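Sample A.
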Amino acid sequence: MTTLRKVLALGLLAALLTLLGACATVTPEASTDSQATAPAAEETADEAAAEAPATDVGSEENPIKVLFVPSVDAQVIVSGGQMMADALKEATGLNFEVSVPTSYAATIEEMCASPTNSMGFIPGLGYVLANQLCGVDVAFKAVRFGSDVYWAQLIVPRDGDVQSLEDLNGKQWAYPDAGSTSGYLAILPLMNANGIEPGETLEAGGHTGVVRAIYNGEADFGSTFFSPPLKPEGEAPWALGDEPDIPDDLVESCAPNEDGSALMCGDWRVLDARASLREEAPDVVQKVKILTLSDAIPNDTLSFSPDFPAELRDEIATALSAFAETDAWGESIGNQDFYGWTGINPATDAEYDVVRAMIEASGLTLEDLGE
């Protein structure tokens, strides 16, 4: 097995989960006068059923779990996620509990282990695995500045010795997490197609960590998400086929804006993973460049656990769509230091067949992963 295949197998096998179930058998007690009491018992049971709510999901005792993958700073996710949860509670009256599991795999595990009361903001790979494992179902996909697809990017030191894909052979590769679609899976077919065999690998724990590793010289190349730069008003927006990086004549001007909320290069705004390191490393664009992009990937998802109550799911979907139209959205999941969703679109399972194809192109299928 090649080094690349070993990395893939270990990474994806780590995302597979074994869900344990417990079975209990209850033996009803016999009653000597069951015939005499049966009508009254049935009447009482009917009344109780009529008075009982259809589900207690969303109650204070059984809050809906809102799960986020740890792709950016966990504190940013928790504070922004709680803002979203508060808005959803105000709109629906339901109770929500925000958490950030320790890894992409742990997020999937939690959704499968909580089949009736969890919703997860998970990337394409996480969704495909969760759907295969336990029937997690997609509801929405992210929109970022008008696009509901995105790309993976390979980044390298701007003044380093890596100038082409061929130069990556034997080099140390930094990636966020083996469960990351853009940071890991989408890059594998690109490497296979170009005969690239990386050397050592570094799991950096998030996209920002990958950028930091390249900036600090801790790895030779890295893989993260790519979002197109936002061009000045009046110019044609970035389109596939355009250079992915900032124009060379603007690179030296790149710096955080006055309030630190954006990474600007003249009137161009950087929206790829490098922007998340702007305060720590204001010259990140001067030090780190984009080498190339992957094929397009459908954006990350909001998905629901397999047995989530349909009526509550509809309520949440309506409330979330309304929240996406408010200014508060930009301080929550729309914040560029969070997930940078500028909106949401409905999504279907079939749209993520491209992710399934990426797994197949890498030499393994979902059925093979447990072997």
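Sample B.
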Amino acid sequence: MGNSQRREFIKRSTALTLSTGLAGFPAIVRGQSGPVKIGVLHPVTGALSYSGQLCRLGATIAIDEINAAGGIKSLGGAKIETLFGDAQSKPEIGVSEVEKMNAQGVSAIVGAYASAICLATTQAAAKYNIPHVVDVGVADQIVERGLKNVFRFAPGYRAVSQQAMNYLHIMNTLARKPAKTVMIIHEESLFGTGTANLLSQQLPGMGYQVLEVVKHANPTRDFNNIVLRMKALNPDIVIPANYYNEYALLVRTMKQQNVQPKAIFSVLGGGASSFKFVKEFPDVANGIIDCNHWYNPKDARVAALRKKVEAIKDQYFTYEVFLNYQCVYLLADAIERAKSRDRDAITAALAASTWDRHFMPFGPTKFVDGQNQGARPLLMQVHQG
């Protein structure tokens, strides 16, 4: 059947369904066959579009692989049909996209990258009992509201911050404590503000003096004044917590103004754990430390996926890509076990998940109040590329 014939068939069959009243049948009747509709919702335009597009790429690769391997086998090989949504880097737009996805009958949603957007989309999805797998959004408020439909695969910023400070303190102690003062630079949204608040609370109790906590807007195109302030304060450690563009510009400005702290120790640094950043700014990136989402480098499956991603022009194997890739497989596993397109059945299957076929440095997936208890970050350092 050609494309024009297919469109005409769909057009006529839709008209027939509406004219005969079949559209009014209960959802359980209409949902027993056909594809499994999954919403893939990210900020693919606006200030966060670079990361949002990478998130979409990771989810798309996983869905294509699952469909090519025979679809959801417990549903007779049903294919996953992707419904894309663009949050446009705004929480309120993310909510309107969830409304559209609900009207289109999605069984679940994966997304929506930024903490502020995830906070809004998970709440909106809860109105319709749509299971929502959170890919990245690190704000712990996302999983602390008692919403039964929310499942975050990766660690939140409280766990990451605590792990990062433990790592920092161990390294500083082994080095005979050369670092005593800290300056925190963070972006203004829920992610950056929440992370900075946690760090500024934890560090004094570990013997570090927080000289200043500086917030910046998204987007920010000039860090000269912030770096001049940094130069005046002369902190031993600079801790950035921001998204890719701002991260890259901040550390480049530090390089230009010859600001050289004892360490740039990132916590969920938007650029530090990025092959793009390392390739484009090797002299700036060298030596930077970051506690962030990362895969298990010993897992052989990683190399094949990275090769697939990097075969696409101008694409990099980032945490946005592989977290969404894994989240789709987590969701597909739940649908397989639920043997159903029903939202409540999928939610129950996610809640009971013990999925361990990921390539993250996690234990088996186990959700408590929506948070994966097996999730943990890794500490990394850029060294000569």
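B remarks: The chain has a mean pLDDT of 92. The domain at 158-292 is CATH 3.40.50.2300 (Rossmann fold).
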